[in-house]
Amino acid sequence: MAVNYVVNVPLTDVWSNPWSGEEKERLTQALLGDLLVATNENGSWVLGQVADGYQGYVKRQDLVPVWASLPAARGTVIKREAEILLVGLPQLPPLKAYLGTRLQVDKGEEQQYLRSGYTQVCLPSGEIGHIAEDAIEPEEATKDKVDIVRKVLELALNLRGAPYLWGGITSVGIDCSGLVYVIYRSVGLLLPRDADQQYDYLQPVDGQLFPGDLAFFATGEPELASHVGLYLGQDRFIHASSRLGGVVVTSLNSPYYREHLLGWRRCIDTDAAGFKMPEGEV
Questions:
Q1: What is the CATH class of 5-65?
Q2: Which top CATH class is 145-266?
Q3: What is the pTM of this model?
Q4: pLDDT tens-digit profile of 167-198?
Q5: So which residues are the catalytic ones?
């Protein structure tokens, strides 16, 4: 019987197969604390399904078996990158946690040497860590839709300059649908992982565009969404571009993107009442 696992490193790749060679493709990535539902184990590799729905091979050394006694409360990292200080292990460097990482928040009475301005978290390995309070947002935090849109844009703009990486979902390497996936995951909305899936899953935009809407492009096969960006307002969108080398802000009036625009989709149903984008360049 297969055992389920949890990712125990800041970031791990999910591969199409465990062998080296040109046919080995990075399908996606999984973050610290993500569940892997295992279907098979092959030596130093585990085959399973990760949070975004992809099934692929992950290095066994990056995983630990599910630990059922973790606290129920969860929080999501809302910084481009954050650090987790390991309690009782001062000889070890801080553990990185990337945007969208979901951690178990320990709200128990035993706060081990907790510093002011920090939150205590339980790691998949059972170790205790401390993370800055402003780097993690509790799941129970409530916001109205306009606040969520503002957060979406803030998080996206904080990823400007991140390099392009096929299958990537973090500031050290990210692709176009990975950018959209991790931004919306960070505000509690779990979307499909790939651009064509996102295009099919979400509702078309009927009428006026609002910041936070998604622009889809058919850059290869006609009528197939193969690229996606997040609308910022003022005819600009932010996206992870292989052509431009990473996360950039681009004008919708750019001839290439105007020619390949396929359609628009919306994640958050709001009229953006009271929403105002800053003037000028971002």
A1: mainly beta
A2: alpha beta
A3: 0.91
A4: 999 999 999 999 999 999 999 999 999 999 99
A5: 176, 227, 239
